[in-house]
Amino acid sequence: MMTDPIADFLTRLRNAIIAHKVHVDIPASKIKAQIAKILLESGYVNNVKYIDDGLQGQLRIYLKYGKDNESAIEGMKRISIPSRRVYVGKSDIPRVMGGYGTAIISTSRGVLTDKDCRELEMGGEVLCHVW
Q: What is the radius of gyration, based on Cα positions, of the chain?
């Protein structure tokens, strides 16, 4: 049984980046699909596809590399863990790397970026930081 599926998601991405893989397959869930969509919209990955395998499905995430085979994702950090949830109000939304990174926040309107949360003036649970 998986105790923290979001940490597993981030670890699989991190390992694929270290191994310079073209894509990585991750067991699908609604929250992982929303996080992958944010990574795609923010320009951290090239593409995200859902693969139906007859069970829960797989998310195939195509990684993005730039010059000198450097990944678009320099780092990722899980913030809120099952044993220690981290919630922020609308005035305490974190800035990652001085605004160059992205905080992914779970809100009542779904999973949003820190910039979207500031525009909508709402807080939530800080899932992770990506830079």
A: 15
Per-residue pLDDT of the chain (131 residues; tens, 9 = 90+): 568 999 999 999 999 999 999 999 999 999 999 999 999 999 999 999 999 998 999 999 999 999 899 999 999 999 999 999 999 999 999 999 999 999 999 999 999 999 999 999 999 999 999 99
CATH classification at residue 42: 3.30.1370.30
Q: Is 19 helix (H, G, I), strand (E, B) or coil?
A: coil
Enclosing domain of residue 16: 5-69
Residues 59 and 113 in one domain: no
Residues 86 and 46 in one domain: no
